[in-house]
Design goal:
- The strands form three sheets. A ten-stranded mixed β-sheet has the order 10-12-11-13-14-19-18-17-15-16, with helices on both faces. A seven-stranded mixed β-barrel has the order 1-2-8-6-4-3-9. A two-stranded parallel sheet has the order 5-7.
- The protein has helices at residues 41-45, 100-106, 117-127, 141-150, 160-163, 191-199, 213-217, 237-246, 257-265, 352-363, and strands at 6-11, 16-23, 27-35, 53-57, 61-62, 81-83, 86-87, 110-113, 130-135, 169-170, 181-186, 203-208, 223-226, 252-255, 270-286, 291-303, 312-318, 324-329, 334-337.
- The protein folds into two domains: 6-150, 3-Layer(bba) Sandwich (Glucose Oxidase, domain 1), CATH 3.50.30; 160-363, Class I glutamine amidotransferase (GATase) domain (Rossmann fold), CATH 3.40.50.
- The protein contains ten helices and 19 strands.
- Helices cover 23% and strands 31% of the residues.
- It is α/β, with parallel strands linked by helices.
Length: 364
């Protein structure tokens, strides 16, 4: 590991945390959030839902198993910055093709280590997720606080446009197609979602976030998938309008941002959580069965339960704060979950939801 110069994290509320530079040098702004996962840092880095955010890992020792070519959840890392308590200089894993710091440098991701992540996470839990800036260049606290306050806010931000694909394409997973044709909206889609659909014999066509409903229906899909993604769901108005047009015509399944978009299309409202849910250990209750699942999350917004119309039922709730984690329309073939049944990283308790989507298309 290279010599690590001093670096600062400045939050918009005036709090300052000192550490050492790690990864690419420079300055990066973003919403500072934390994730409770003990492993899976490469999947976190490459999850487009973290676009515009500086991610704090609560697990203290990060980087010990390196990085590889198979664990990325998209074409490149999307985080604005990365914060860890201790960055391991030693890589020990037979799958590793490189080390974490070199990976961050290659992808121009600034990071911070030797920082009191416990104190930082407690601060965010108390005050809420907020804008911040990592800097190894400018070490003047007052200047950095001013820069953080001048950076983009997450509320009202349409970030799906930043992370979506430029053109439609087919997902090639080298498995035989035995079931249905699914059109997946790319608001920041994770590769493991596509793997889960392909593993069930589906042909998957991925389309850009701004694709019109008419163009999607012209592809004659058996089902439409609304993907995860970053930003404020209420700002993704084009996707909400498109979803309204194909509801009732084609089965719909949404995950994360897709869940929020479906909720908005059905007439509900969304709101920003204080510090969000991020990590692979969130307990969610499946209300129809009473079963509790341990699930993977990455979201800072949620659907407002009090705004749901009468023809929409809640199917899942978060046992930590009663936040809506799943909904289903009572009459139309449409359902969604706020969490990530594809995991990557995380537990596999909720993979049955992909089977539910297949069964919904079979019934149609």
């Amino acid at each position: 590991m290279r010599h690590q110069p001093l670096a600062l994290l400045a939050l918009e509320d005036g709090a300052i945390f000192r550490g050492r530079a790690f990864g690419a040098r420079g300055e990066r702004c973003g919403e500072v959030v934390f994730t409770t996962g003990m492993t899976g840092y490469q999947e976190v880095l490459t999850d487009p839902s973290y676009h515009g955010q500086i991610v704090v890992m609560t697990y203290p020792h990060i980087g010990n198993y390196g990085v590889n070519n198979d664990d990325a959840e998209s074409a490149r890392p999307w985080v604005s910055g990365f914060i860890v308590r201790e960055a391991s200089p030693v890589v020990s894993n037979w799958r590793a093709t490189g080390d974490l710091e070199s990976y961050l440098i290659e992808n121009k991701i600034s990071a911070l280590t030797e920082i009191d992540t416990r104190a930082l996470v407690r601060h965010i839990r108390t005050r809420g997720a907020m804008r911040g800036i990592i800097s190894s260049d400018d070490l003047d606290p007052e200047t950095l606080i001013h820069k953080s306050r001048a950076s983009r806010e997450m509320s009202g931000a349409d970030l799906a446009r930043d992370v979506t694909c430029a053109n439609a394409y087919e997902w090639n997973y080298q498995l035989p197609i035995t079931n249905y044709h699914i059109v997946a909206y790319d608001f920041g889609i994770k590769h493991n979602i596509l793997r889960m659909l392909a593993a069930r014999g589906c042909r998957v066509t991925i389309v850009p976030a701004t694709t019109r409903a008419e163009d999607v229906l012209a592809l004659k899909p058996d089902g439409i998938f609304l993907s995860n993604g970053p930003g404020d769901p209420a700002a993704v108005t084009y996707a909400i309008d498109a979803t309204k047009k194909f509801l009732g015509r084609v089965p719909v399944f949404g995950i994360c941002l897709g869940h929020q978009i479906l909720g908005l299309a059905l007439g509900a409202k969304t709101y920003k959580l204080k510090f969000g849910h991020r990590g692979g250990n969130q307990p969610v209750k499946h209300l129809p069965s009473g079963r509790v699942e341990i699930t993977t999350h990455n979201h800072g917004f949620a659907v407002d339960a009090n705004s749901l119309p009468g023809d929409v039922e809640i199917t899942h709730i978060n046992l930590n704060d009663d936040c809506i984690e799943g909904l289903r329309h009572k009459n139309l073939p449409a359902f969604s979950v706020q969490y990530h049944p594809e995991a990557a990283p995380g537990p596999h308790d909720a993979r049955y939801l992909f089977d539910d989507f297949i069964e919904m298309m079979e019934r149609r």
